[in-house]
Structure formats: structure tokens, C-alpha cells
Amino acid sequence: MILTPAQIEARRRARALRTKQIAGNAYLWLLLVVLYAPILLIIIFSFTKSKVFGNWTGFTFQLYQNLFTGYDYNAQVRVDPNLYRAIAFTFIIAFAAALIATILGTLAAIGIYNMRSRSRKVVSFLNSVPMINPDILTGISLFLLFVFLGISRGMTTVIIAHVVFCTPYVVLSVMPRLTKMNPNIYEAALDLGATPFQALRKVLLPELRPGMVSGFILALTLSIDDFGVTFFTKGSGGLETLSTFIYADARKGGLTPELRPLFSLIFLTILILLVVMNIRAAKQAKK
Amino acid sequence: MRKLTDIAANRRTWAWPYVLFMVLFVVLPLIMIVYYAFTDADGGFTLYNFIKFFHTSEAINTLIYSFAIALITTIICLLLGYPAAYIMANAEFKTPAVMAMLFILPMWINFLLRTIATVELFNMFGLPLGEGALLFGMCYDYLPFMIYPIYNTLQKMDKSLIEAAEDLGANKAKVFTKVILPLSLPGIYSGIVMVFMPTVSTFAIAELLTRNKITLFGSLIQRSFGEGGIAMWNYGAALSLIMLIIIALTSFLDSGKESDAKTSLI
Question: Does the pTM exceed 0.95?
Fold first, then answer.
């Protein structure tokens, strides 16, 4: 078969594109392999009971059993009870902080939206400070404030500190919903005799709900993942979240082995959630 | 006196609780850093804390070293992250749609645990825990923060501009340097800030990755508030103020866009 020059050119192009695609995707997969290697290591070593991370002593579900029963039947010892307290505190603090941040942030977003441009600029700048500030500076500045005012550190100070760095993100998630909304609906509700609180509940909140939900979820994840701010505001009364628990554990030299199954499960849960969300979003996009 | 409902009807006032909260827990704490930095343990005004810093070569060297490590980390992340973002945002490469999600997924695992796992990875391969481990761990932790903002700007970019450049006779290299790169600058700035700021201020990662062999500026600050007791707090506050100034200067690079990038992660 004899090909015309145009056909040869077209084939050459197609081949070049294929090579480019393969090379590009290979690069991404290579990065992902490196990115996931440590996580894979955690998951793999959650299926062996060795106390030392990185030491394979045979496949077993022992650590999962330990994690759920709170008792290591092999070694006849209890799993560090501080681990469970840390898990509980992590979630109590995260939910409290996210809830307060969502209420405070939503009201603030409505307020900022209705401000004149000068005061709006000032408040928006203030709002961006905790986002720009690294966690060590947020933590230390609050630590110094609590020390200066003679407030003893504990659960309350940690929640306040988490509200500080969570609320700005709630404000930013709610704001786009406000700018998209028809501002006259709220006024109409007032004109029709609704009190401001009724108008808030019946008109504003339903419109803002998606922004509030994503703000709440973002606040939740930021709070759960935080280490630096918690470290400086938790005090020395024995309050630990998962982050500070892991840090203290690692400094002692060992790592509570039950952390491996715990984080494998957390990772799996999030993976499934994200995949389900993505499939749903893709289906909706098709419609 | 105005009635409560009148105040509530004026929706500007709804931000007041938050403004009050920020004054108390954002502004006042920052003033506290300044206050402690310029006072001694008895509360009297002094410049001693800064004099001490500029006379301690170890502290200055640590600051310069941390700055260099953060800079190198940022550059590596940019060099690795830009191509990744470019490939994902470019339809030509036919990357699976879940790819972008896969890059941010590791961030949901506690970063301390990931860091410890990285240390184990180095141990398994018999690699030494030093500067190399530190750079690897930092890049590993913050690469997604570089990829995501760049990916976002590249994806939102008006593709017809590229076609226009091609139609007007620009070759591939020209299109990239004259159209794509300049248009993705906002994303690059956000990425740089999002990687540089946490790496220059980090304090736990370095300890774990190098088994306390390398001290970064963040660890130096942390230590002033730890074992030394109250006597070191004023010095620590002075170090914090220096860090705050560095952060403030860096944040001029991108004014508030970091926030957009981070909210879009969800």
C-alpha cells in the first residue's frame, strides 16, 4: 500500500500524540506512586502485629482486633487508653469548632456582604489573617494571650483556637452563595411582614445552605488535621488530640501500633466517600 | 434606645460578633507577640531579645538555613508540580478524571503519620535521615498544595487564546512562554505561597524526618516556649515576630488568592 504524503504526516502526528499521552500519564502515575508509597506502607503494616513499624512478622488482623476491643489478647495488655481519649477529643473539638465557625461565619458573611466597601475591606483583611498566618504563629499568639489573661489552657482554649482558623473558610464558602442570590428576596420577605429572624430562617438560610455545608466540612477536616495550633493551646493537663498524641508518641521513639489500622480505615473511608461523590457529580454533569 | 429588631434588620450588624471575636482572638494575640518581644520577664521595655538574636550566630544561621530549605522545597515542588498540573488540565493527554482527586487524597491522612511513614520508607531502603530526607518529606507533604492552584488556573484558562496564538503563527514553545505561562502566573503565585509559608514555619516535620539532627527556625521558636520555661518566652516572641514579618512580606506575592485555592480543594 502506498500512502500519500498527507497520510504519512497524519500517521506521524497520531503517533507523536500517543507517545506524548503515554509519557504524560506515566509521569503522573510515577508521582502518585511516590506520593502513595508511605500511605501504602501504613496500610500494609496494619496487617502485621509487630510493635515496630516496618517489621513484618506475618499476616494477621490482630491490630484491627486490638483497635476495636481495646485489649491486646496476645500480650495480655490494654491498648493505650489515651489513644481512645485522643480520638474522642479530636472529634468533640472538631465538631464543636466547626459548628461555632459555621454559625459565626455565616452571620459574618451576611454582614460583610451588606457592608459599605471600606469597612468590608477592613473586615475581609482581618478575615484573611488567620488563613495566611502559619499555624505556629496562630498557636503562639493565642498561647501568649491566654497566658497574659491568666486563662488556663484546655478544651475551651483549643476550641476557640480552632474557631479562629476555621471561620475564615466558612465565610469564603458562604460568600459566593450570597453574591449569586437575588438580594430582593430578603427585602420582599420583610415587606410582606416577616421579622428579620423569620426572613433569615425561611429565605436566607435555605439559599446559603450548600455554602454552609461545604464550609462546615472544610472546618471539620482542618480541625481534625491540625497539629501546630492545638500543640500550643492544649495546655499540659493531659488533653491530647490524635495529632498531638502521634507527635508525643513519635518523640518517645515508638508508635502505638493500633494507629496503623486506625488510619488505614480512615483513609479507606475517605477514599470511598470521594469516589462516590465523584461518580455522583459525573452522573449529574451528564444529565 | 433602638429596638433589638431594628439592629437585626440592619444586616451589617450581623458581622459584629465575628468582628469582636477576631479583635479578641486574632488582633489581640498578634499584639501580644509584639508586646512580649519588646519586654523582659518583668514586663519592662527592652530590645534585649532582638540583640540576643542578632548576636547568636546559631539562631541567624538557623533562620537562613530554614529560608533556604523552604526555598528549595518550593522550587522542587514547582518544577515537579507544574508539569503535573499542565498534563492534567490539558485535554490532549486524556488523563482520567479522578487524577486530580488522587493528588489531594493523601492530604486527608494526618501529616505527622505520613511523615513517620516516610521515615520508615527511608529506613527500609537504608537511606540516611538527613537533609535529603528532610527535602523529600517536605516536598512530599506540600506537593499537592502546588499542583492544585496551578491546575485550577490552567483549567479555567480561555482555550481560544491558545488557538488564536497558533493561528497567528506561534510555535508550541512560543504559545507556552507567551500565552500559557503568563496566564497561569496567579496559580503559580498561590502555589508558591501555599508551599513556602508552611515549610518556612514548620517545626514538627524536621524533627521527625531527621531524628532531631537538623533544627529549623520553627523548632527554635517552639523550643523557646517549651523546656526553657517562662524565661525564654520573650525571646521566643521576638523570634515569632521575625517570622511574622517574613510571612507578611511573602503574602504580598499573592493578595488573598491562597484562600480561594484552599477552599476549592473541597
Answer: no
